TrEMBL record:
Keywords: DNA damage, DNA repair, Nucleus. Residues 213-335 form the DNA mismatch repair protein S5 domain. One of its GO terms (biological process) is mismatch repair. It comes from the Eukaryota. One of its GO terms (cellular component) is mismatch repair complex. GO terms for molecular function: ATP binding; ATP hydrolysis activity; ATP-dependent DNA damage sensor activity; mismatched DNA binding. It is found in: Nucleus. Belongs to the DNA mismatch repair MutL/HexB family. It comes from Triticum aestivum (Wheat). This is DNA mismatch repair protein S5 domain-containing protein.
């Protein structure tokens, strides 16, 4: 009541804190898939297979052939803030792995049922841990790690309902895997619905980026792509480098596909996307949206990777200048191809 004594402040129980935090890290089934696939790639896997049931609400299973997890680490594997990737805060400046917070697996155990099966090199058998039991059992296993997440959000009624009512998350999951497949060309990534014998994405491994794009997005996309490279030549110590493929004037699509990796992290950058779309709409006569794959590399100390709970955004030093440079380069490429096209149709 107004004017009354203020309400008491109490400390939340740890289980409540954990579940609240987990809901932020694992926002939807596709975020769980992203975390698991990143773990597999961080573990040096060359094959990663994803299986999904009911848009990930019933089952998400990610199997890899990476380095596995030591048996003695299993008891703390799914505790919060346990990681093999970071030890000092300063390591964040140079970290190469996609994970670093040691939160993803823990979060999944607070909002779903997690089982890990893993084997490390030289072991005769693997271990399976239905992690809440904390009593890993020996079992047969093939090289690597398999993580199974069942009944995601079983204890978050509102979240589960929303996800059941909205379109299921499977297309988002396929989209994530496709993006990873374009960047990690030497990892064989696949994704299928549980029980289906055909995969919806199957990247294979290849040595060429264009082949990777072809395997995932199709030959018709690749036909209309141009290679693009930008580097900051005026800078004393090269501030950034960008390699990529962008669609030309013949490409037709209603929606922009923007696959952006910054220092090998899949991220979103709204301002770069807007700038790119702006260039396309200004130069190309028809209202087609572009297909863009870009890999930007910067000195690690210029990238803050820790600004978002799901790590889907990063913050860059000199962001405006970088975007400006990239915009100029796209503009130049498009002008050239647009001129050629007009020339060809007139000839
Ligand atoms: P992070 O990736 O930030 O370290 P996670 O909770 O995602 O945190 O994973 C915790 C730890 O578990 C990792 O640091 C890694 O050592 C181990 N791990 C998780 N998934 C795998 C995997 N697929 N293969 C090998 N090790 C893994
Ligand atoms: Mg991780």
């Amino acid at each position: 009541p107004r004017g009354g004594a203020p309400p008491r402040i109490r400390r939340l129980e740890e289980s409540v804190v954990n579940r609240i935090a987990a809901g932020e890290v694992i926002q939807r089934p596709s975020s769980a898939v992203k975390e698991l696939v990143e773990n597999s790639i961080d573990a040096g896997a060359s094959t990663v297979s994803v299986t999904v049931k009911d848009g990930g609400l019933k089952l998400i299973q990610v199997s890899d052939d990476g380095h596995g997890i030591r048996c003695e680490d299993l008891p703390i594997l799914c505790e919060r803030h346990t990681t093999s990737k970071l030890s000092a805060y300063e390591d964040l400046q140079t970290i190469k792995s996609m994970g670093f917070r040691g939160e993803a697996l823990a979060s999944m155990t607070y909002v779903g049922h997690v089982t890990v099966t893993t084997i490390t090199e030289g072991q005769l058998h693997g271990y399976r841990d239905g992690v809440m039991e904390n009593d890993p059992k020996p079992c047969a296993a093939v090289k690597g790690t398999q993580v199974m997440v069942e009944n995601l959000f079983y204890n978050m009624v509102a979240r589960r309902k929303t996800l059941q009512n909205s379109n299921d998350d499977y297309p988002k999951i396929v989209d994530f895997i496709s993006r990873f497949a374009v960047h990690h060309i030497n990892v064989n990534l696949s994704c299928r619905k549980h029980g289906a014998n055909r995969a919806d994405v199957h990247s294979g491994t290849t040595s060429s980026r264009l082949d990777a794009i072809r395997n995932v997005y199709g030959a018709s996309v690749v036909r209309d792509l141009m290679e693009i490279q930008v580097s900051d030549e005026n800078a004393v110590d090269e501030i950034f480098k960008m390699d990529g493929f962008i669609s030309n004037a013949n490409y037709v699509a209603k929606k922009t596909t923007m696959i952006l990796f910054i220092n090998d992290r899949l991220v979103d950058c709204t301002s770069l996307k807007r700038a790119t779309e702006f260039v396309y709409s200004a130069i190309l006569p028809q209202a087609s949206k572009p297909f863009i794959y870009m890999s930007i590399n910067l000195p690690p100390e210029h990238v803050d990777v820790n600004i978002h709970p799901t790590k889907k955004e990063v913050s860059l030093l000199n962001q405006e200048r970088i975007i400006e440079k990239i915009k100029d380069a796209i503009e130049e490429k498009l002008m050239n191809c647009n001129n050629t096209r007009i020339f060809q149709t007139q000839a």
